[in-house]
Design goal:
Layout lengths: L3 H15 L2 E8 L5 E8 L6 H15 L9 E6 L10 H6 L4 E10 L2 E12 L2 E6 L4 E4 L4 E6 L9
Parallel strand pairs: 2-3
Antiparallel strand pairs: 1-2, 4-5, 4-8, 5-6, 6-7
Helix pairs in contact: 1-2
Length: 156
């Protein structure tokens, strides 16, 4: 079985050349064939056609990997409206957007919140919860986070 990191290193040059960002790689075992889910994005979003082109290019490189000789299913897509975020640059890029997040350590007896990315200054992320509370943390203090985008909000 191939690892997520191995898939990421194989496809990195393809994505870089295409100006796309790797959001997430999932390797899901299943019978004789693994399912490889690759989520990609770029500034301003990525189209279905671009995902199809990337899928063909990525597939050619993955076909040469011995660990995948028994076959695999490849899915290349956008991360969608619930895009996972975990890097400091992701939080910077999406300041002002809504998200659902889980803290590594409980605050006020809970770890799961919804809210807005208010600001990112230096290495600190400032989040405003739906209840109006302010949470300030670094990336390590966030166990899990994904955007909760409004499909009707106009993007600039």
């Amino acid at each position: 079985m191939i690892s997520r990191d191995e898939v990421a290193s194989i496809i990195a040059p393809i994505l870089e050349e295409a100006g796309a960002e790797l959001v997430e790689v999932q390797v899901v075992p299943g019978g004789r064939r693994a399912r490889l889910r690759i989520f990609v994005d770029r500034e301003g979003g990525i189209t279905v056609g671009e995902c199809g082109q990337l899928s063909r290019r990525i597939g050619r490189d993955l076909d040469a990997v011995p660990a995948l000789a028994s076959g695999y299913w490849l899915e290349v897509s956008s991360p969608g409206m619930r895009r996972p975020i975990w890097k400091l640059e992701h939080f910077r890029r999406f300041v002002g957007e809504r998200l659902v997040f889980e803290l590594a350590e409980p605050r006020e007896g809970r770890t799961r919140f919804d809210g807005t990315i208010e600001a990112v200054e230096n290495e600190r992320i400032r989040l405003r919860t739906g209840e109006g509370a302010l949470i300030e943390t670094d990336v390590a203090g966030i166990a899990n986070a994904h955007l909760d985008l409004d499909p009707w909000k106009r993007r600039e």
